[in-house]
């Protein structure tokens, strides 16, 4: 493969309704889009979602990173080339994971089209098999909006939920009670606090005061408070999901001694692309640590499709999968048809996603 052009643009797609959690409120996407074109005229697309409260990135910073290294990436023609650049510049990617994710994904999509193989085969894996089961995600909106969201999820048939905790105990308790009262067969609920609390005692008291049964707690304390999370996990009797506190494979030494206490949330953009995301998943599996294959709010079908590679390869250690909202959330997607969950929160994989590259049909 020989790359003829490589460009990055920002991506701003309005949401059908705003989404709120403890770290941010969002009404549109905040992403970068990379387009790679080969000398044969084939095109690959990649997406990254810079989040300042997750990795310290911004869209402007991603664009500066792209301008600084674009000429180097133009010479990448194989998976080994991408892997070599990523290894040689690991510290730089740690500071710009979403930007590199967009570049790497576009190049892998293009490489798959050049090789006439789906991206999984390009990476040495087997083609996708399905279906994929997604979680519902309930944000921190006012209760009337929460009820509307919940009704929509119930109508579709979800039974697995991630609930954002906002710090108003009475309001959060009301939302937990509404979920419990819905009579959902096999209901599973995990909480996401987005680093809400500073102290273990405060977090433990709040969680117990919600009067619910939960399968996991995501990022309850300040970013990187592993010792506090260990104590909290033991007190509450559920594992801690690490998201903002786990952004690279180099962080396993701080959690590997007690694998039963942890779950790692692997978001492809946050991890710095598919190659790094798969490396984290592989290491988690070898240590007996479960994973969530997560998503940034507002992802298009590009990142949804990229995450399927991780979910399919490591579904034996995956406890939940997030994303695939497509035009359930976005006013429009970049692809037609958009890649998104259907009845029961499931996404069936038909032959189109085993077409060359990402297998997506771009319309914008």
Feature tags:
364 residues; alpha/beta; 12 helices; 15 strands; 37% helix; globular
What does this 3D model show about the protein?
α6 packs parallel to α7 and α11 (about 275-285) packs parallel to α12 (about 300-315). The chain is α/β, with parallel strands linked by helices and about 375 residues long. The model has no long low-confidence stretch (mean pLDDT about 95). Strands 7-8-9-10-11-12-13-14 form an eight-stranded parallel β-sheet. The chain has a three-stranded antiparallel β-sheet with strand order 1-4-5. A two-stranded antiparallel sheet has the order 2-3. Helices cover about 35% and strands about 20% of the residues. The protein starts with a strand and ends in a 17-residue tail after the last strand.
Layout of secondary structure:
Blueprint: E1 3-11, E2 14-21, E3 24-28, E4 31-38, E5 43-48, H1 59-73, H2 79-88, H3 90-95, H4 97-115, H5 119-122, E6 132-133, E7 136-138, H6 143-156, E8 160-164, H7 169-181, E9 188-192, H8 200-209, E10 217-218, H9 226-236, E11 240-242, E12 262-266, H10 268-271, H11 274-287, E13 291-293, H12 301-313, E14 318-321, E15 346-347
Parallel strand pairs: 7-8, 8-9, 9-10, 10-11, 11-12, 12-13, 13-14
Antiparallel strand pairs: 1-4, 2-3, 4-5, 6-15
Helix pairs in contact: 1-4, 6-7, 8-9, 11-12
């Amino acid at each position: 493969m020989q790359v003829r052009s490589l460009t990055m643009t920002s991506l701003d797609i309005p949401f059908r309704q705003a989404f709120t959690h403890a770290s941010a409120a969002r009404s549109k996407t905040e992403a970068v889009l990379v387009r790679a074109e080969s000398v044969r005229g084939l095109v690959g697309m990649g997406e990254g979602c810079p989040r300042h409260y997750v990795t310290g990135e911004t869209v402007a910073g991603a664009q500066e990173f792209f301008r600084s290294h674009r000429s180097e990436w133009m010479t990448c023609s194989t998976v080994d080339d991408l892997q070599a650049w990523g290894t040689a510049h690991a510290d730089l990617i740690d500071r710009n994971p979403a930007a590199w994710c967009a570049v790497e994904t576009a190049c892998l999509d293009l490489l798959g089209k050049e090789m006439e193989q789906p991206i999984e085969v390009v990476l040495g894996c087997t083609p996708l098999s399905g279906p994929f089961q997604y979680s519902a995600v309930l944000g921190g909106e006012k209760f009337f909006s929460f009820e509307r969201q919940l009704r929509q999820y119930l109508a579709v048939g979800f039974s697995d939920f991630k609930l954002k905790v906002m710090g108003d105990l009475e309001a959060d308790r009301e939302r937990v009670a509404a979920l419990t009262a819905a009579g959902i067969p096999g209901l599973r609920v995990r909480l996401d606090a987005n680093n809400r609390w500073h102290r273990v005692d405060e977090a433990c008291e709040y969680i117990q005061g919600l009067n619910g049964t939960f399968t996991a707690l995501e990022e309850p304390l300040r970013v990187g408070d592993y010792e506090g999370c260990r104590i909290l996990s033991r007190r509450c009797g559920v594992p801690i999901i690490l998201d903002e506190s786990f952004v690279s494979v180099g962080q396993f030494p701080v959690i590997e001694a007690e694998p039963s206490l942890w779950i790692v949330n692997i978001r492809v953009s946050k991890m710095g692309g598919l190659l790094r995301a798969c490396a984290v998943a592989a290491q988690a599996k070898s240590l007996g640590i479960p994973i969530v294959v997560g998503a940034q709010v507002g992802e298009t079908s590009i990142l949804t499709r990229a995450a399927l590679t991780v979910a399919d390869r490591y579904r034996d250690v995956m406890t939940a999968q997030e994303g695939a909202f497509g035009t359930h959330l976005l006013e429009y997607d970049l692809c037609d048809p958009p890649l998104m969950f259907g009845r029961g929160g499931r996404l069936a994989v038909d032959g189109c996603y085993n077409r060359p590259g990402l297998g997506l049909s771009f319309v914008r």
